Every structure is written in C-alpha cells, then in structure tokens.
Amino acid sequence: AQAIFAQAVRPEEPSRRAQRASSTTVPDLAGSGSDRIAEMVAFTWHAPAPTAEPPAKVVSMRAAVAEMLASAIFVFVGCGAACANGASDGETNLVVAFTFGLSILVLASAVGHHSGGQINGAVTFSLCLGGELPWLQGAVNVAMQLLGSTLGACLLMAVFPCHMDKTKSLGSNIINHKSYSIPNVLVGEAMGTFLLCTTVWEVAVSPLSKAGALAVIPIGFAVFLAHTVMLPIDGCSINPTRSFGPALVSHVRGCAANDAAGMRDLWVMCVGPLLGAAASAGVAKVFRPLRKVAVAE
Asked: What does the pLDDT read at residue 262?
C-alpha cells in the first residue's frame, strides 16, 4: 500500500485519461467564457461518482481546506514554540526543531488521506513539477496554505502579546545578517528543502517504497534535521507558505524595530526552497522506475 502522502496526489491513470478524452465533447466556443470554464473546471468536495462524466479538470476543495487547516495549526504550534521558548541557544533550538518536525508528523497523519498532507508550498511545487499533482490543484492548495499560515499567525498574535513573544516577530524567518550572507542562506534553504522533498518522493510517493503509512515518520524527521542546521541562520523556512503568514502579521502588528525584517527577507524564503524543490523533482524523475512494457508476440 502506498503511503498516505501519495494517496491524494496521484494523477489519474493514462488509460482513464484517454477514455475520458475520447468521450468528452468539445465545449461550445459560442458560449460565454464562464460557461466554457464551468465545462472545463469543477470545484468539488467529494470525488465525482464513477458513472458521472468528469470535467476536464477537477479541484478537490476538501483537499484544499485540509491544507489550510493543517497549515494554520502548523504555524500556530511550530512558530508558537519559538515565541514561547525563543531560539537563541542549543537547548531552545532543539525544542523548536523537534516541535516543527513532530508537527509535520502529526498533521500529515491527520490530513494525508484528504490532501496528501503537503502543508508546504515547496513540497506542493515539487509534486506538481514531477507530475504527481495537477497544477490547478497545486495552485489552489498553495493559496489555501497561505491563508492557513496567515490564520495561524493571527492566532499566535492573539495568544502572545508583544512583551511575551520571545522572537518579537511571531516566529518569522529573519536572516542573521551579522554572520551570514544571502547566498549562504539560499544554499542552506535549498539543501534543507531538497532533503525534505526527496524524502517525500522516495519514502511516500515512490512505488518502490515499503514505508506505507509510516512514511510520515522519516518526513517529520527530515523537517527536524533541516531545522537543526538552519535555525541559527534564518529560523529555518524550507516552506514559503509557513514563512508568509508570520512575516505579514508581524509586519502589521509592529512589535519591534525589526518588524519588517520578515517581509524584507521573505523572497529568500521563497527562492531557496523552490530551487531545492525543483532539484528534488528532477532527481525523483531520474530514480523513477521504468514501467513494464508488454511486448506483442
């Protein structure tokens, strides 16, 4: 059995796509634009009935909402650990790193059967780039992850007043510019995200993997490992959608002089992880097993 990470992200089989393409009528070009879009795209909560003719593209809103809820909880718990404990020494870094890793393990187990448990815009991008997740579904998932991240940051703001937030930024990802350059951070973020995405591809998605539902364990530990390296450097993003909410809400709240630092450095937290995610998708294609081809006698 494939891992729950892969259950909600696999594209339909080629034979099914060919059957659907042969049976689907071409939309009437004389109709209105909204009618043509309605014929091509459907937003649904439940999967279409087997007897119903599916539209050209189906977006699962159940998967998208699951991603939003998981992202909100992820930011609240992970960044909340940073707000409550700080991340200024080895002991507090270990607490925060373990919290982020354990959060992914728990939340991926909770929502994996609904959405695949991506909870990370870079993971979603990698799965789309590698052909494991339709681009339209991926775009909707990322939009809902951003919304969830912002909601989680708002909840943190409701819990931690400025004087009790030990990060003073709701756990935003801020580069330690005194010790590290932007290229340093870009390489670190790319490598951390590559570690995570490659673990997802090889443990949860690959048909050769025997991990099954236990795939969430190495994936959670991949997040933990990346945080042990990157926390002193930039707070460890490896997840653009996780970085977005705290940076935005912290900037609006304005607790400290560096309240805009999260928004200033946000582009690095996007570029680095996306580069790592793209590299991971390329490696996954190299290691993807070849399909057996039937030879006609």
From this structure: 93
